[in-house]
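#lab-general

N.A. 3:47 PM
ok so I finally got the sequence cleaned up, no stray characters, all 149 residues accounted for. can someone with queue access submit it? mine expired

B.Y. 3:52 PM
send it over

N.A. 3:53 PM
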Amino acid sequence: MHTESMGQPVELLLVEDNPDDVFLAQEALKEGKIKNNLHVVNDGESALRFLRKENPYQDAVLPDLVLLDLNLPGIDGRQVLKQIREDPRFTELPVIVLTTSESADDIHRMYKLHVNSYIVKPVDFEQFIKVIKSIENFWLTFVKLPTRT
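B.Y. 4:20 PM
back already:
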């Protein structure tokens, strides 16, 4: 696992089209305990290009963890997760859905596609920051992530 304890920051990919949520995630992770590099893309096509190292992301680093919104312009998060799980290069990549959708259909569908966690974004700013910090505390402190290749 690439963590601060090994001298390397954790690489995170945030797939989020809401600038306010991006800002809050950046601030929460900046204040966090774990050194990280947060990469942000704002649509599904860019997320897939980032992961596949396609133009303009040829130099992108494979993230240790993906935070994925479902409701994105163009290719939505549901399709992004489906394509991630169909690609043998990314089957072990941990993906956390972080979305406003409380739809039982979305929750079932995402777990059938092997999402690692499904979290409903709180609308309250303070609660949103707590959620980001709890993701950091759990996923970047306690969980052993697969080694990047």
